[in-house]
Structure formats: C-alpha cells, structure tokens
Design goal:
Layout lengths: L4 H8 L1 E2 L2 E7 L2 H7 L6 E7 L9 E2 H7 L15 E3 L8 E6 L5 E6 L4 E2 L7 E3 L2 E3 L26 E8 L11 E7 L4 E7 L4 E6 L4 E3 L9 E5 L2 E7 L5 E5 L7 E6 L7 E8 L34 E7 L2 E7 L14 H11 L2 E13 L2 E14 L6 E6 L13 E10 L6 E5 L5 E3 L2 H8 L10
InterPro entries: ADAMTS/ADAMTS-like, ADAMTS_ADAMTS-like, ADAMTS_CR_3, ADAMTS_spacer1, Netrin_domain, Netrin_module_non-TIMP, TIMP-like_OB-fold
Organism: Leptobrachium leishanense
Keywords: Disulfide bond, Secreted
C-alpha cells in the first residue's frame, strides 16, 4: 500500500492543489433509487496557487516513489517517469527510463492533474473539470460579463467596424480606432489589411506595435488582462483578451493602405459610458480625432474622452493636449537584439551622416552609403533617412559612420516613400567588430518565427 498524501508531500516536497470534500445527496439518486444510498461527495478546489519553479510535478513525484524498488518478479529496480499515452488519464502509468515498457501502479492520488496541459483534476479515478464556482465536476461557467453563473445581464455587447478612410496626403502617424473602457471583457479586434494595429495604455505607453516598431506576435500582459496578438504572413491581425481590464486601453492603427474596415467587439459593464441599450445594435462608427504622428510626444495620454448624444446615437470625441517631453533613449544591446532587428529590418547599412535637419516634429538625416548588408528595396548612393522625433533618439552625429537597421514606409497615396528609423531601431557606431558580427547574422533569420 502506498504512502499517504501527507507522507508523500513531506518526502519529496511536491506541489499540487488540494481539494475540500463535502457530502450531498443528489435529487437524481432520490428519484431513481428510491432514496439516497450512501453519501455523495462533492469536491471543491482549495489551496489554489502557483507552484515554485523548482517544484516536482505531482504525477512525477508519484512515479518516483517506485524508483529502484524490486518488482515484476525481479530484483532489478527501475527509474520511473510519467507516461501520458495510457487509456485512463487518472491511472498512475509510469515509463521505465531507458526501457521500452511502462507499468500501471493503480490510480493517481486525488488532486493530480489529468494531463500536462489539462485543466481537469483526478478524483477517485475520474477526471473532473472545475466549474467557475470551484467545484469539481460542476458545469457552471462564467458568462461574457465575467460573472460566474451569470446570463450576460450585467453588461452590454459592443460590436462595430471602424471604416475611417485613409488620412489625407501628408499625414504620417497613428490614428485612434476605439477606446476600450476599464472593466471590458471578451475583447477582439481584427484587421485584414497591411495596416498595423497598435495597443496603447491610458498613460500613452504603447504595448504592441508602438513608436514605429513592429512587435512580435505573442502574449502580452497589460491592464490586468492577457492579450494574445497574432499576425499572419499575409498581415492578417487578431488581438484578443478575456479580461476584465483594469484601465482604459486604446486601439490605434498605423495606416499603410486603404482601410477595408477594422472589426472590434467587447463587453462592458452597464454602468460605463457605453451603457445605452438602444445603441447595442448600432453599427455606426464613433468619431475619433486623428492622433498626431509623434511617437515620443504621446498624443493619447491625458486625453479627455467625452460621450455626447447626437440623433439618438452615442458619439465619442477626443480632445488631446500635447506635451513635448523627450524620454531617455533605449539602446539595443547584445547578440539577440542584433539578430532580431536585422531580420525585421528592410535595410541594414553602413552609412555616414552628412547633415541633420529638423522638419516639424521629425528629424531628417542625409546619409552617404558606405556598404549595404541587406536591402529589400533599391537604394542610391545618397539617401534621406527619417526619425519620427526631435529628441536625438537615436543619437546620430554628423560626419560619423554608423550601422543602421531601418524600415521602409509607403503611404496609400504613394506620396511618401521613406526610410525610417524608430526609437527601438538597431543603431551602432560602425567598427570592424560590428562589421564582423553582421556578416554572420543573416543566417539566423531563417530560424526566427
């Protein structure tokens, strides 16, 4: 007979979630069996927390209890690890390390996860999923409002399409799509064009695709929510999160072509400014004022968002004060930064800075090409390269030579075709060492997602 749960945990310091056990008699037992025969048990999760990184998985610990013990009619001992291909996920099936067989030691201990990626928990040999009420085997779920057992009665659904046209000629920057208020749940934003979605916090800090830098698809934690950002090879973008959010968030777009429509949807509590039941089916687009294109001089922080009623519709206006505070420049460091920027950039060049000129809220540099490591588009001996701030970020000194990793930007009207450096672009003074590193960087790009 195996050791008790308490003995096992003391011996190996494993990590698992516990469960409380209650007694109940189900109505179905009374109706079908003429009474409650025996006590029906109800289990609820307790001691819920995150296991330490160095903790032994609970199922692995149970297999390890049989390490090097004589069995199977032999004095030879084996080392055991979990085997997840067995028919019953709640059996303790372990694989002998270095051998081609596994053995079933009976049921796993209560509280063991049904699998490495399962949300179910094994109780008495059965895999039970946990309801939002914490009860194992419960079918109670969370509604779109985030209420356990609710019926979407405490929130309203917002679903619209942003159809604003491509900005007029000369506009070069981010445009506000929608403000997602604090408390929003089940958020999803979809774009089918080459335009770039961006996510910005209420303090003006960009989380995804901000400051003219393209972010990797992945998982981003912001405002108490986990956002999943996906971008396909055809530039189809999806941004979604379950929520709820703890602060207002802004969906922005960096236009590069005609806008076929940006779809967005989310649920908000009824007490928010969106809580007008008559507007639930209104597919009209809110009016937003264009956001000016200065990545360092943020335009959305401290924005005063006002809701006013016009012709039976809710319309949103934005008044945006501007500030001119330059932030400390971030400098790329290390081999991984070099590889990442190299693979993402349209141009990787060695260039000499000939002159510098401020043009509005941007800086234009005239450069002389010394060497081209990578170029997706043709270049000439002398080029202009643009930086979308006036803060010397990145810092480029005249008559000095640099390694520059830049991108190309062409607007819809084809009136702008520029080489662009962002605040996060890889910029380093040229040196023989830097030159040597760049020669071997290109081969790493094929391994990047």
């Amino acid at each position: 007979m195996g050791p008790s749960v308490a003995e096992v945990q003391t011996e190996l310091g494993s990590c698992r979630q516990g469960q409380d056990r209650g007694e109940r008699c189900r109505d179905s037992d009374i109706a079908t069996k003429g009474g409650c025969l025996g006590k029906q048990r109800q289990y609820k999760m307790c001691h819920i927390g995150t296991c330490p990184e160095d903790a032994i998985p609970f199922r692995s610990m149970q297999c390890a209890l049989y390490n090097f013990k004589s069995m199977l009619g032999s004095q030879q001992g084996y080392q055991w690890v979990p085997f997840y291909g067995a028919p019953s996920v709640c059996d303790l099936t372990c694989l002998a390390v270095g051998h081609h067989f596994y053995y079933n030691f009976g049921r796993v201990l209560d509280g063991t996860r049904c699998g490495p990626h399962s949300v179910g928990t094994c109780i008495n040999g059965r895999c039970l999923n946990e309801g939002c009420d914490g009860i194992l085997g419960s079918d109670v779920t969370t509604d779109s409002c985030g209420t356990c057992g609710g019926r979407n009665e405490s929130c309203i659904f917002i679903q619209r399409i942003f159809y604003d046209p491509f900005p007029s000629a000369g506009f070069f920057g981010y445009k506000n799509v929608i403000r997602i208020p604090a408390g929003a749940t089940q958020m999803k934003v979809t774009d089918w064009s080459r335009n770039l979605l961006a996510l910005m916090r209420s303090n003006g800090h960009y989380v995804i695709n901000g400051n003219w830098a393209v972010s990797w698809p992945g998982v981003y934690q912001v405002a108490g929510a986990v956002f999943h950002y996906n971008r396909t090879e055809s530039n189809h973008e999806v941004l979604e999160a379950i929520g709820p959010t703890t602060e207002d968030l802004y969906i922005m777009v960096l236009f590069q072509e005609y806008n076929p429509g940006i779809e967005y949807e989310f649920w908000v509590p009824k007490e928010t400014t969106y809580s007008n039941p008559r507007s639930l089916d209104d597919q009209s687009v809110m009016n937003q004022k264009d956001m000016a294109p200065d990545p360092l001089v943020q335009t959305a922080p401290n924005s005063q968002m006002k809701i006013r009623k016009e012709h039976g519709e809710l319309r949103e206006t934005t008044t945006t004060p501007r500030t001119g505070v330059c932030r400390r420049c971030t400098k790329p460091r290390g081999r991984s930064s070099r590889i990442k920027n190299y693979c993402q950039s349209d141009f990787v060049i060695r260039a000499k800075i000939l002159s510098r000129r401020l043009m509005g809220q941007e800086t234009r540099y005239e450069i002389q090409l010394k060497y081209v490591y990578k170029n997706k588009f043709p270049m000439v001996h002398r080029e202009y390269i643009w930086v979308s701030n006036i803060c010397d970020c990145p810092e480029l000194k005249e008559q000095k030579e640099y390694v520059l990793m830049a991108t190309r930007h062409v607007n819809y009207e084809q009136t702008l075709n520029r080489i662009l450096l962002s605040v996060n672009s890889y910029v380093k003074p040229w040196s023989p060492y830097e030159d040597q590193q760049l020669w071997s960087t290109n081969r790493h790009c094929v391994f990047l997602p």
